[in-house]
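Note to self: keep these together.
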Amino acid sequence: MKVNWKEILDMALARLIVATVLVAIFAQAGQAQQLPATGSPVVYVRGQVLLQQAPGAAEAARTFERELADMRTELQQQAAVVDSMLQDYQRQEVLLSPQAKETKQQEIMNLRTQLQQRQVEMDGEAQQRQQELLGPILEQVSEVIESVRTENRYSIVLDASKEGLVAADTTLDITNIVLSRLGVSAPPPVDEGTPQP
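Structure:
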């Protein structure tokens, strides 16, 4: 009897391909996050992870930090002017007449007041700019969370990033599902020694 090596190799190759496909399918199924049971009363998200991973969040954070650095530089320059004026006054104080002293002191106080007012204005501008940059991202994340909540009839979605949630079953975490709906891959799993959530 003649052995047909070509047929044996073809069959072995076919079995190898089938085995590889099955392993890939089972591996993928093992990695997929299981949804909490439909109608679960409470699930949670890791809000900090969502904000860090959401599309556009990194660019918004970079833009905000760059603009905030410009504001800080402006304040530091204005503060340097006030400090310089104060040092000049202190060096010349003994030589100045009482009226000149009062005038210089008033100028320094006016500049300090202007600096404080500018700082308050910049704080407001920074908060507004942060809202402008992050608002659309937060809205998109909220819409996806609400969509997942509604589709799966979850009653409440908590944010594990906020204070108050001490411990939770990780099977109730829908963060990776939300990230997937946002078109972002989930971050690597947390180390077992790291506290959850």
